[in-house]
Write a structure and sequence with these properties.
The complex is a heterotrimer.
Chain A lengths: L1 H31 L4 H11 L6 H14 L6 H13 L14 H36 L4 H13 L4 H15 L19 H38 L2 H8 L4 H39 L4 H10 L3 H29 L1 H4 L2
Chain B lengths: L1 H7 L2 H19 L34 H37 L1 H16 L2 H12 L5 H11 L2 H15 L2 H8 L4 H37 L10 H10 L8 H29 L1 H10 L1
Chain C lengths: L6 E16 L2 E16 L3 E5 L6 H9 L6 E12 L2 E4 L5 H10 L1 E4 L13 H10 L7 H14 L16 H13 L5 E5 L7 H18 L2 E5 L3 H7 L2 E6 L2 E7 H6 L4 H8 L38 H5 L5 E4 L2 E3 L14
Parallel strand pairs in C: 3-8, 3-9, 6-7, 7-8
Antiparallel strand pairs in C: 1-2, 1-4, 4-5, 9-10, 10-12, 11-12
Helix pairs in contact in C: 3-4, 5-6
The chains are: A mainly alpha, B mainly alpha, C alpha/beta.
């Protein structure tokens, strides 16, 4: 019970508070910006109203007035905003009318989720294992070479790195496709041909996310391991002649992974943003590409929908990672 | 002086310092540019690098070298505004939270942690969409600074927490030193090197985000920055058309800039934390 | 007692330095400097000295756990394994690993958390056992461990606990039990009683004595606490600035301390019926990175002569089993001091 009170409840409270704060910020942004951008959007829409049916036009304007607080006091608007969210209604997209924002996100999300889950898992696990070994054997030359590579890769922003890989592997040597999530006209089926096609298209985006994420994990893990290595229980195990494989695995890496779990939780937001940017570079049909098209078309409603969805998705992911922590650390489990 | 001499023994610091000097000199050269960076078609289009145009010219009819001097200058201005203003916020939040403790600490840290968790990039895209027509260097810098303080406030806070436990704090309080004076006179000298190293990280972060926002077209594209240069080069398909000198200029500049900033901050923080230093010693 | 004269661990001119590279300038810390020891079977040998005199480094060197920045600069270390002398520094890493715990084991400082925090005590035991005992007899050894724990007066279910659930004294006794599990011939204790409260200290000392009596092995005990030495040690070596400066039986050291430094150490102990102020050693120990010329104790010594500033004295032997390196006692005709 102490565990629930000391660990679980504070984390759940924080989870809901962060979601509340994030959504409130999203609510406030258009209201705190200097001009009335929504009126401008409406004006623009009215201006090119000829491309839309009149009824659709009215629907959009009604959506906008409700979503962006053009009616009633701020408090009324705030309540209305939350009401819509609870109904899961994010309104319509301006440029892909009459598609609803929900539907667009639902189509794009599996792509992002697939890319993000695999790359995060691979880069975290591989980064920790290699970083752990490199930290333990930090005097070996291979460890120093890996360190030097990480020192160069680590500071590169997602955009620049993804772009460099694209130039190299899609333009200079043409091993991989330049853009897209699958070949044009390929029909999504559960056949090996289609899966192969998807994997081939997602290889470069996945590679950039893995290398960048892996470099960070590698470096932090290496540093943590070097510190854990000096801990008394590791020294004692060495003094007790415990075999090296046991020391590396059960003593050093096992303990060094604990702060890495917390680190993963803290960096999920960044990894997510990085994935969106990477998708844009490679024209990969996930949330990032959806966001890009929304930006190009001035579709504020869609951008807001993606942001709200992301806030909830990211905080939930962090909560899940946080809740697995006690499985690895008995000091949290039994106190 | 001795500190600097020690730092220069680290090849990473020496390299970073060299690169940053070159980049700052480039930024200063912009004063002597013969061309107005906002005007198009001042030189013939799409020329390869030559004696006359060191880095060639672009499809807008601008000289790439002189354009790059402005780009570097503006990127540095944005990131310095972002870095310095967010430092002020981070120092204030970190010191208040660390020194006051209790409820104040909890609220400030909650806000900070939330900023770390929320996808800031998306929030920034939303903001930039809405203020796009007002966007200039200062506003962009302030926008970045408003979101870039959270991590460093946390770092400064934990430093203050450990300083607060030290003897000299108690001595100072017992001898009647005021809080403000204590923080400024006693804590700041300890925190300064740390703050400097977070400043470098923050500058790199701001430059990176500017590039991303510029590529998405969310800044004023007529102001040359590393990001807008990239945007134009991509817009004119410079890769497909083989105009490598155009696309490579901002890419290579930013690669060197990011690596130099990162290495400098690593080198400094290693110097500050003898523990990692000893480990490096052990590795040699 | 014939067997007592057998030397089980011996060093020749042992030198272990820390070589630090502080941003380009090399710094050498002479933590163990020309130490000659001959420790016998079935004895408790105490090593005493202030903190920072190189005691712990000497232990690491005796144990041959030498990792950068610590380096073995010179000298030899011999163990007598199965009636045969082995030069330890020349062994392969695997041979060294095998010797640990089975032949020579380590008892860590009391305040340190030496048990892996994410493993149950039982799992730690299993790791140590599996690293030394062949597959078929592991189960047996584990049962033995369980039995030993009960014998040593520890709670039976302690093996199922995690380290953070035990008290400091309990953890210390578990680690001593673990160190004694495979009946090693030598046990080396590094301040095993430090940072424990007095009652617990007593328990730990008794436990050590009991184990020694049962196993008839050698214990090398390092502590700055002369009281503990008086209580358990058969012989004592006094260490100062990386060197042994005096060595003798416990009675010789306490009744007839010859080196001025030893005299200070003994005089700082409280005695019954004596209400005088206890004086501690004046000044502070020298930095091992920047030793004074001559005898390293001369800046703090009340009897300094000119020669003390010039060169290090060799050992004199005022009595059987008693040796001391001090210009006040003799010329040290038996060569340079350790």
């Amino acid at each position: 019970m102490a565990f629930v009170k000391r660990y679980l409840i504070p984390r759940l409270i924080q989870y809901f508070l962060v979601i509340w704060l994030g959504i409130t910020v999203v609510f406030l942004i258009p209201r705190l910006t200097p001009n009335d951008p929504i009126m401008r959007v409406i004006g623009e829409l009215r201006g090119r109203g000829s491309t839309l049916e009149p009824g659709a036009m009215d629907g959009i304007i009604r959506d906008l007035t409700q979503l962006y607080g053009l009616e009633g006091s701020w408090l009324d608007q705030y309540w209305a905003f939350w009401g819509r969210l609870f109904r899961g209604d994010l309104g319509v997209s301006f440029f892909q009318f009459p598609a609803r924002v929900n539907q667009l996100i639902a189509v794009a999300m599996p792509w992002t989720l697939g890319l993000l889950l695999t790359t995060t898992a691979i880069s975290w696990i591989v980064g920790n294992i290699i970083g752990g070994l490199a930290g333990y054997y930090s005097r070996k030359s291979w460890s120093r070479i890996l360190d030097a590579i990480a020192m160069v890769v680590r500071p590169l922003p997602y955009y620049i790195f993804a772009f460099a890989l694209l130039l190299l592997f899609a333009y200079v040597v043409r091993w991989f496709p330049i853009t897209g999530g699958a070949s044009l006209g390929a029909v999504p089926t559960f056949t090996w041909a289609y899966i192969k096609d998807v994997l081939w298209h997602s290889f470069l985006p996945a590679l950039s996310l893995c290398v960048l994420g892996g470099a960070v994990t590698f470096q932090t893990m290496k540093l943590i391991v070097q510190n854990v290595n000096a801990e008394n229980f590791v020294q004692y195990a060495k003094m007790g002649g415990v075999t090296e494989d046991r020391i590396v695995g059960k003593y050093v890496i096992r303990n060094a992974v604990l702060p890495q779990i917390t680190g993963l939780a803290l960096s999920i937001g960044q990894i997510f943003s990085g994935a969106l940017i990477t998708e844009i570079v490679y024209g990969y049909p996930g949330l990032g590409m959806l966001l890009y098209r929304a930006i190009v078309n001035g579709d504020y409603n869609l951008i807001m929908g993606i942001t709200l969805f992301s806030i909830i998705a990211i905080t939930t992911a962090i909560l899940i990672v946080d809740l697995t922590y006690p499985l690895f650390d008995p000091r949290v489990r039994y106190k | 002086m001795k500190t600097l001499r020690d730092l220069f023994r680290d090849y990473r610091f020496a390299f970073s310092f060299g690169v940053l000097v070159i980049i700052v000199v480039m930024a200063i050269l912009s004063i002597f540019s013969p061309y107005d960076p906002t005007l198009w078609n001042v030189v013939p289009k799409d020329l390869k690098p030559s004696a006359e145009h060191w880095l060639g010219t672009d499809s807008n009819g601008q000289d790439i070298f002189w354009q790059a001097t402005f780009a570097v200058r503006n990127s540095l201005i944005i990131s310095l505004i972002a870095g310095l203003v967010s430092r002020v916020i981070a120092i204030l939040v970190g010191m208040i939270a660390g020194y006051q403790g209790g409820m104040v600490d909890r609220v400030l840290m909650f806000v900070g942690d939330s900023l770390l968790v929320i996808p800031l990039f998306l929030i920034m895209v939303m903001l930039a969409m809405l203020v796009r027509q007002y966007m200039n260097l200062v506003i962009l810098g302030l926008m970045l600074s408003f979101f870039g303080w959270a991590w460093d406030a946390r770092v400064i806070r934990s430093m203050i927490l450990s300083l607060r436990e030290r003897d000299f704090t108690k001595t100072a309080i017992l001898s009647g030193t005021g809080t403000v004076k204590l923080v400024l006179n006693e804590y700041m000298p300890f925190a300064m090197p740390l703050i400097f190293s977070t400043l470098i990280n923050n500058i790199a972060w701001a430059i990176g985000l500017e590039i991303t926002l510029a590529i998405l077209g969310l800044v004023n594209l007529n102001v040359p920055t590393l990001g807008t240069m990239l945007n134009w080069a991509l817009f004119y398909q410079s890769i497909l058309l083989g105009r490598w000198w155009w696309i490579l200029t901002p890419v290579v500049l930013s690669l060197f800039l990011f690596i130099a900033l990162y290495w400098m901050s690593v080198s400094i923080s290693e110097y500050l934390d003898p523990r990692t230093r000893i480990q490096r010693v052990g590795a040699s | 007692m014939e067997i007592q004269t057998e030397t089980i661990l011996r060093t020749e001119n042992l030198k272990a330095f820390y070589v630090l590279d502080m941003h380009g300038t090399q710094k050498i810390v002479k933590a163990v400097n020309e130490v000659d020891l001959a420790i016998k079977e079935n004895e408790i040998y105490g090593i005493a000295g202030e903190s920072g005199c190189g005691k712990t480094t000497l232990l690491k060197a005796l144990f041959n756990v030498i990792e950068p920045p610590l380096r073995l600069i010179g000298g030899k270390i011999y163990y007598r394994v199965n009636w045969e002398e082995v030069e330890v520094t020349s062994l392969s890493p695997e041979e060294k690993r095998r010797l640990r715990l089975e032949y020579i084991s380590y008892i860590p400082q009391g305040s340190m958390s030496v048990l892996n925090p994410v493993l149950k005590i039982k799992e730690s035991y299993q790791d140590f056992i599996a690293s030394h005992v062949p597959e078929q007899s592991r189960k047996e050894t584990m049962e033995l461990a369980q039995k030993q724990i009960v014998e040593l007066g520890l709670p039976k279910n302690i093996l199922n606990a995690y380290p953070h659930q035990l008290s400091g004294g309990m953890r210390q006794r578990v680690t001593i039990a673990l160190s004694a599990l495979l009946s090693p011939r030598i046990m080396i204790g590094d301040e095993p009683t430090t940072a424990l409260d007095v009652v617990v200290q007593r328990g730990v000392i008794q436990m050590l004595k009991e184990i020694q009596r049962k196993l008839q092995n050698t214990i090398i005990l390092v502590t700055h606490d002369m009281g503990v030495h008086a209580n358990v040690a058969h012989r004592i070596g006094i260490m100062y600035a990386g060197k042994i400066v005096e060595e003798g039986t416990t009675i010789q050291i306490f009744d007839n301390p010859l080196h001025p430094y030893t005299q200070f150490l003994i005089n700082s102990l409280p005695k019954f019926g004596d209400k005088m102020m206890r004086e501690s050693v004046p000044g502070s120990p020298p930095s091992l990175a920047d030793l004074p010329r001559g005898c390293p104790f001369h800046p703090r010594c009340p009897y300094t002569k000119d020669i003390c500033r010039e060169s290090m004295p060799g050992f004199s032997y005022p009595d059987e089993k008693h040796r001391v390196a001090c210009w006040l006692i003799g010329e040290g005709e038996h060569g340079k001091a350790s």
